[in-house]
Amino acid sequence: MDMKKVLLAVAVAMVVLVGAGVAYAAGNSSSEMTIGNLDADESYKGSVSIAGKNESSVHKLANIDQAAAEQVALGAVPGTVHETELEASDNGYVVYDIEISGDDGKGHEVIVDAGNGEVLHQDLEEESDESDERGDTEDADGGANGKEGADLGGCVG
């Protein structure tokens, strides 16, 4: 009889653990979705709103020029500017979206307020991570060639 109670307790514990694991996994996936949505949401606020205005007039609404915005962005992330766009953000503000190849070897995106020149947001670009991985593959191939050279060196010496 005691063996049946032990087996029943083990079975109940397994059900609880499996249920907790499923709930944990479901909770993690929803929080990841929330993090992704925060990026799309663009929760920052700029100083120049396009509410009620024609989006094609963003150039007229900007108070700072592209060069000034790039200097602000480079102050936040030292490196080289690759692309700058003056645009209406998803949340309705006029901003400069600046892509920088950072001195740290990573790609960065810096959002600068087109009204007052403040950095509103900055983020690492995911694309540079992929190119880094491709570079690692090339290094591995180069390592194989280096090994062959080392073998030749061993034969000569």
UniProtKB/TrEMBL annotation:
Keyword Transmembrane included in the entry's annotation: no
Record's keyword terms, sorted: Signal
UniProt xrefs under InterPro entries: PepSY
Signal among keywords: yes
Signal peptide region: 1-25
Biased composition (Gly residues): 143-157
Acidic residues biased stretches: 124-141
Protein's name according to its UniProt entry: PepSY domain-containing protein
Pfam families xref list: PepSY (PF03413)
Source organism of this protein record: uncultured Rubrobacteraceae bacterium
Domain PepSY per the UniProt entry, residue ranges: 64-120
Region ranges (Disordered): 118-157
